[in-house]
Amino acid sequence: MQATYDVIVVGAGHAGCEAAAAAANMGSRVLLITMNMQTIAQMSCNPAMGGIAKGQIVREIDAIGGYSGIVSDRSMIQFRMLNRSKGPAMWSPRTQNDRMLFAAEWRTMLEQTPNVDFWQDMVSGLIVKDDRVVGVKTGMGLEFGARAVVLTNGTFLNGVIHIGEKQFGGGRTGEKASTGITEQLVQLGFQSGRMKTGTPPRIDGRSLDYSQMEEQHGDENPGRFSYTNTTVPAQQRCCWITYTNDVVHDILKEGFEKSPMFTGRIQGVGPRYCPSIEDKINRFADKERHQLFVEPEGWNTVEIYVNGFSTSLPEDVQQRALRQIPGFQHAKMFRPGYAIEYDYFPPQQLHTTLETKLIRNLYFAGQINGTTGYEEAACQGLMAGMNAHLTINDKEPLVLKRSEAYIGVLIDDLVTKGTEEPYRMFTSRAEFRTLLRQDNADIRLTPLSHALGLASEERLNRVEAKVHHRDELISFLKNYSVSPEEVNPALESVESDPIRQKMKLGGILLRPQVDMPLLVNNIKPLADFVNALPDDMSGEITEQAEISMKYEGYIEKENEIVGRFGRMEEIFLKEDFNYSALTSLSMEARQKLSKVRPRTLGQASRISGVTPADISVLMVYLTR
User: Fold this and answer.
1) Which residues on neighbouring strands pair with residue 562, listed in sequence order?
2) d(CA 172, CA 169)
3) Helix H segments across 99-226?
4) The dihedral of CA 278, 284, 286, 288: what is its sign?
5) What is the DSSP secondary-structure string of 270-321?
6) What is the pLDDT of residues 563-613, one digit of tens each?
7) Alpha-carbon distance 484 to 499, whole Å?
8) pTM of the shown model
9) How far is CA 382 from CA 71, 162, 258, 390, in A?
């Protein structure tokens, strides 16, 4: 045995990095094992973080004390708040990132984190004794002891890369696959499956004609992910939009007979919401064109990512089709797109802590659980790392509720419902999305994280100060009366009806045409109040106050629903509950409950096939 650690993390992608950082920052001695130290936190696919629902997850990770938000801010080349035309529950931050800088920042932060050691090697197996993991074996024949192990293998478990009729082993282009772990886990009783994902070709930006594309700028006043006052770049890089056409589609169709997806060489299920270009033109044959986002990969590189053109067709077909896209007539390819097939383990084999049900102190996080996306992987790694540390120190685990975080929704969906295709987060998956906004992630989660020793005292103090100032601002708005002379010019400027007598500012703010900037710019007492707020959080406080007032009714309604259904989340079910003996339950319910082993009655109610009548039977039994 080389050495023994508290926690060993296998894989240094987004999940592995967050897992290692979380466990180490809570006090565990951590060994992060990766097959290549030069690809730590590599953005294997698009050079961006956040987006619809994913941006909320990144902010939640940051609020808990993870690193993804900080790294994203430090490496951003463009920031956009998506869905601004919709309600604040739908607002989603997104950054375009410098791929190389992103990975470099992650490695720097990990190297500066006490308690994290590194080892470059392939983990070929686990050391298991009495149904408990106690270490790992590596390809070099070494053994490392551990009190807990977190597997974050990404697409490397028996990975196979497909380009047309060519296929070869690999977890990522230019990197070998990982072998041994799947076979051992299956022998131990785990079920495994195959999934597929893909990536588009990378293009030499010098060969593109951007004048034929639509320019897409970042926000005029860029925001950030982190609550730690990271620096916003003084300038941003543009992206561009272009489209496919019938000629492009016809060329791509010529390659279908050599497509690994259509010829059956790929058995794994691909992502429904991020299909390959050949899948798009096959499934949506009525569409004359498909949108493509032309994204730069960094500040100082000409490499371009063609978002929306993921493909595994032969490279010559890719090249010919690309050159029929407006702006791509002379496009030079750096490397072709490809599909990758890999092993995953259906996540119903996990507890809500992400610990496996079969082997104690063994945790799975990321694509090994059937998810897709950097953000989904990172938040699982964070929770697995935290819970691994808590478990080995005999402390209560952290399980986030669906009403507390998108992270809670994601994990509950995975372990309760499972997934037969790569799982991606959307705002529609969260029934309490008005409560789970991107702007209040710190208020929701930092106190929880601080109580467990991850979020710092400084972070908690900042949250408490923010809440205090927000409440004071709301009180001011509700109590300060403004005269017609003061406010009518501002109201008329936005075509809102003038007032005829004094009125509380809070009532005026409720008008759909009126927002805080309008009132601050026109009502001096309010401007004086806002100017006295701490500079580093003034914008956050005013935004929070406005959202809290404008959506007060919706927020109260969702809180009532949470309270009503939340009672079932407080009724815990024993892990060894004998559902088979409860003959009043339907046969399907007995089978599903025995398989999933829900933690609470609330989780049991969300299992497919478990009816309200079955839940009533369980409630009666538990009452007795």
Assistant:
1) none
2) 9
3) 99-111, 181-187
4) negative
5) PPTTS--HHHHHHHTTT-S--EEEEEE--SS--EEEEET----S-HHHHHHH
6) 877 788 888 888 888 999 888 888 888 988 988 889 888 898 888 888 888
7) 6
8) 0.93
9) 15, 31, 41, 12
Beta bridge partners of 7: 30, 148
Helix, strand or coil, per DSSP, at residue 338: strand
- CATH number of 202-335: 2.40.30.260, 3.40.1190.10, 1.10.10.60, 2.40.50.140? 2.40.30.260
Q: For residues 371, 374, 377 and 379, what is the CA-based torsion angle, rounded to 10 degrees?
A: -130
Reading the block at residue 271, the tokens are: 């992502």
At the top level of CATH, which class does the domain 4-46+67-73+101-200+342-423 belong to? alpha beta
Return all residues near 399 (Cβ < 8 A) that are at least 6 apart: 352, 353, 408, 411, 599
Q: Where in the chain is the domain with CATH 2.40.30.260?
A: 202-335
- What residue ranges of the chain are covered by domains with CATH 1.10.10.1800? 457-555
Q: Where in the chain is the domain with CATH 1.10.150.570?
A: 571-623
Please state, in angstroms and rounded to a whole number, the distance separating the CA atoms of residues 361 and 158. 24
CB 594 within 8 A of CB 580: yes
Give the list of residues 6+ apart from residue 33 with CB closer than 8 angstroms, or none: 8, 9, 10, 11, 12, 118, 119, 120, 121, 123, 136, 138, 144
CATH architecture of 571-623: Orthogonal Bundle (1.10)
Contact indicator for 570, 460 with CB cutoff of 8 Å: no
Dig out the tokens for 448 from the structure.
């929880």
Residue-wise pLDDT for 206-259, tens only, equals: 999 999 999 999 999 999 999 998 998 999 999 999 999 999 999 999 888 877
Average pLDDT of the chain is 93
Q: Is 82 helix (H, G, I), strand (E, B) or coil?
A: strand
Mean pLDDT of 103-123: 97
* CATH architecture of the domain with residue range 457-555: Orthogonal Bundle (1.10)
Q: Give dist(CA 18, CA 383) in Å, integer.
A: 9
Confidence of residue 358 (pLDDT cuts 50, 70, 90): very high
What is the CB-side half-sphere exposure of residue 549 using CA atoms within 13 A? Answer: 28
Q: What whole-number distance in Å separates Cα of residue 368 and Cα of residue 347? A: 8
